[in-house]
Amino acid sequence: MIIKMKKEATKKQYKKLEEFLESKNLEIRDVSSKLIHIFGIIGDTSSFEPEDLYAFEGVDEVTRVSTPFKKASRSFKKENTVIKFKNGIEIGSHQFVMMSGPCSVESEEQMRTIAKTVKESGAHILRGGAYKPRTSPYAFQGLKEEGLKILRKVGDEFDLLVVTEIPSADLLPLFEKYVDIIQVGARNMQNFELMKALGKSTKPILLKRGLSATIEEWLMSAEYIMNGGNEQIIMCERGIRTFEKYTRNTLDISAVLSIKELSHLPVIIDPSHAAGRWSMIEKLSLASLAVGADGLIVEVHNNPEHALSDGAQSLKPKKYLHMVDKLKELSTLLGKDFR
Amino acid sequence: MIIKMKKEATKKQYKKLEEFLESKNLEIRDVSSKLIHIFGIIGDTSSFEPEDLYAFEGVDEVTRVSTPFKKASRSFKKENTVIKFKNGIEIGSHQFVMMSGPCSVESEEQMRTIAKTVKESGAHILRGGAYKPRTSPYAFQGLKEEGLKILRKVGDEFDLLVVTEIPSADLLPLFEKYVDIIQVGARNMQNFELMKALGKSTKPILLKRGLSATIEEWLMSAEYIMNGGNEQIIMCERGIRTFEKYTRNTLDISAVLSIKELSHLPVIIDPSHAAGRWSMIEKLSLASLAVGADGLIVEVHNNPEHALSDGAQSLKPKKYLHMVDKLKELSTLLGKDFR
Amino acid sequence: MIIKMKKEATKKQYKKLEEFLESKNLEIRDVSSKLIHIFGIIGDTSSFEPEDLYAFEGVDEVTRVSTPFKKASRSFKKENTVIKFKNGIEIGSHQFVMMSGPCSVESEEQMRTIAKTVKESGAHILRGGAYKPRTSPYAFQGLKEEGLKILRKVGDEFDLLVVTEIPSADLLPLFEKYVDIIQVGARNMQNFELMKALGKSTKPILLKRGLSATIEEWLMSAEYIMNGGNEQIIMCERGIRTFEKYTRNTLDISAVLSIKELSHLPVIIDPSHAAGRWSMIEKLSLASLAVGADGLIVEVHNNPEHALSDGAQSLKPKKYLHMVDKLKELSTLLGKDFR
Amino acid sequence: MIIKMKKEATKKQYKKLEEFLESKNLEIRDVSSKLIHIFGIIGDTSSFEPEDLYAFEGVDEVTRVSTPFKKASRSFKKENTVIKFKNGIEIGSHQFVMMSGPCSVESEEQMRTIAKTVKESGAHILRGGAYKPRTSPYAFQGLKEEGLKILRKVGDEFDLLVVTEIPSADLLPLFEKYVDIIQVGARNMQNFELMKALGKSTKPILLKRGLSATIEEWLMSAEYIMNGGNEQIIMCERGIRTFEKYTRNTLDISAVLSIKELSHLPVIIDPSHAAGRWSMIEKLSLASLAVGADGLIVEVHNNPEHALSDGAQSLKPKKYLHMVDKLKELSTLLGKDFR
What we know:
4 copies of one chain form a homotetramer. Chain A has helices at 11-23, 108-121, 145-157, 172-178, 192-198, 215-227, 255-262, 271-275, 281-291, 317-334, and strands at 2-5, 27-30, 37-42, 59-63, 83-84, 90-91, 95-101, 125-127, 161-165, 181-184, 205-208, 233-237, 267-269, 295-299, 337-338.
């Protein structure tokens, strides 16, 4: 941590700050010039935020130079984390893993129809929302436990792993029972009570990036989960909020590279929520593979026009299968194993 | 809702859309010109999102023209909602209500010292965090239930109402027991499971705006609570995320006016979290009063340099009392009753 | 400047960086701990950007600790800059200065009608656009030189100073001839060729903040002008782009406080462009005065419904005069002299 | 255009609005329900902004349903615009066109060294800044005319087309003389006087997207140029400003798809400015090709550590040639012709 003092800071103000830092067992090293008074703080500063030091009169600016996440950082663990499943699927290795299915679980029949397409495509993971957090209390909120059961049943029928979103910590036992990968939605990324609960889970966590979250904040949420003991985390970029309105959100494709540089965790992309337009999904998926993502989570629907949510961003089976063909070709070129 | 069709939309595509809209009991009215094909949809569209219609091929653009919130809207209820407390405090009336206290409850002694200042200032509501959602799992997370007890005890001693933040729905019974106003933090604004739970509470809810939330989204979260049956909601603007880094967040002062135009709910300002710099709090508080806010929630600390969180934005008692004097003068000029 | 090196940085990489820094006559001071390698750079770093150092392999992160602006900074000049006009108006002193008039100069008659209201209100500066930069090439682009002449003529008739926007450097001679204060529009804030030209002007410059500009970038544009020799700059906050759509832009009211802390330059507020809604202007103007702005620039129109641009945000004379009454009362309370 | 009226709007207010619309030869069509009063406006609304209608009392909300750009729109011209050069290079066709070179022209020798690499890679367009708009007046501002001459000379030597940025309209004759493609920098995207001047140019224009510009605003700037008579425009996405700080800007890769849907103009990507980190350029370039961009503009430098600007984002020749190999492979797979 680097602290810049105000020109007019008094000796007394310096002393107060020094006392505080020493009480935290931090070492102080001076880097001042004639014009600017600066010192570097050496030691473990994780128990406070840089902002907290602005409470000291005389302090002008505080800058953190080490990353605030530890267990999630590449400097803590050099090798990539690989999440392995019983059926041979690996996220974070040389595989390019496809998760696909409808936005919402609507009925057993619907899930079976779509699961058939998913299986046919060569993918191994089925997605589908059972609990749907919607901005309007009047919109469809999901089939809930019934949805989880359908998802599990159809997943087993087609030998597919299943992934779905958890809305709150108290439902964790239910998710542990029915689900293979537990998804955290963008709006819950900083629901820290949920992160703490997931830290105790034995299931891999798919952690979506918050709508306006920085990569540092996103990794800090992963850190919460890892600090609880669960180190199986899949980061998922799903578009961030920007001023652009033609697309629902803006896919931050370089987030894949940022996560790979800063962390050892795998990272996948959700092009459906990022664009909000099915016409863009194939091209964005190809770009995701090209940039080095470990996989995709994509919405597929047999009848998007009557989907109970998010039909706009769902691919019809034919378009989905066309996209998968393209992805397989590109995987081969890039030395990736499409799964 | 207004739907613009693509030029190349086919008859079949029109028909599919019409069937869907009719199945929802919506009336369709044509407003097309020679160049553009547009129709207006009349009826209750709350069961789907405008985006959902993009799933229909042929649809080019969908625009909502009615607000998605109902119970929270000014057109639903003309008169201002006033939240009344037993001690005569009213939020949303001619009173300008001050809530003040430390960021975190740290000890009974600390709370007593600060409560004395709060009381002396003429304020009637004591704030203090018992559960602290922090971005780092390694930072101080609050005294939890112990903090709630201290807050209640000291509040009663000084005859002050108390307000504090709830981190998750399962703690609601505890908050019902100890607290007068239940605060929802910015990061939980779209934790819809929490909103649903608060809809069942008998306590007024202080609903902070999310870091990047639009006013519509913020009012939709209020709608969730109101839909559950609890109509006592105080909106709280606390700064939004922008590109500016000199202040921690950017106070959106016109949000007060937007809420007053769109809704009947009272709205207060938190200048401490907005600015993140104590040097700005007095001036921002005066501006908040001038713009028409119903009150303030401000951080005061007897010893901000050793506060366990957010010391940077806390006022010392002397500066706080100076600010209150200025606010009282301005209240008088503006015909408001400082409480 | 603080440089953090990568863990794996080689001796050769360190050496290359050191040679570069020494070639710039910068002193290097080590602040490394066992875990992190950091050094501070002391000296004049204005000839390069922190980003430039990322070109050196081994560099992990570079942080500027001194502000990049010099002449515009409060540490360069302690006392407030006051812009003085022949008629006694002072911007940056104890005066609260009102600039008002229509968005566009439309005709001599229109300007005369409005100037009468402006004069009657007790204001001394008339605004009005002669050159209108519009996002659409098909929208009204202003009366141009004819507009400047009308503005000057009507200003002289009513003994009002005049302020208007310059669209490009080649028109500077014309503006020098007709105008008292030269305004730079938000979209031109980083038109550095224009900034350089204005550095040679003898007229005060009203520098609007760019739509997404940080305060540092805004002050850097002031620095360009000051570096050219013109130190008479009035900063003007006019709302920034955020995700909120109910208001056209979001008034960053704390920008007034940021500028006052970082710089000695005066700062005013344009509530009309910030809100884009006339219903909000009175309240935002009162808040601007309360927060400590040195003045306002406000749109007034005798017939906003037929204004050729920006009618939505213009006040009618009656509402404008009502607002001025309120501002005068508040000025008196705050010890400011309304002009 | 769709206009929603306030519930309380009076007959007089309706009448005033109708009169205005009729004076603009617009047809009014009612789509009101019992609850909401709405009408659609049919005809040419390009002479005013939707916001202007808020000046009419009684108006609640105005929504544009047609795009404000005409000549730039896909509905105006169905086929892709292809920019053709004498040497067979085509932008907007089946070719994938590479523009590469240093950020700044520093010397003839430097340009010759880099041009050799560019030529060797199989690219046909050389980039290099002669006029450098920098945020600091103290930073290197480019070799100016001398830089243009060097660029031309070296371009001719190696039979490469040259592209460079124009800072202001008065330099257009010089650019016409020396340059093959004239670049508009992000900060000048809404310098409308410059757009008007470029409308008269005979050279293709490379129009960079503004830092916070929406795609609609970006296309409106293209519209300005096209309205002046120059229809040879290459759109260039170069990253937008977001809250993320690890990358300099955030590459909006879906902008390629948005432009292709909304317009007939070609669009390329500048990964160097988007990321600001050379480590990300190869991967982002591959993703750009995969998503369907018509080309790239990339920074290459023989000695980025001593570059006078933007060294951080420049590739060394070896890395650049490695990237080009990968791009060629991928071009082949995708049926594109790498140039």
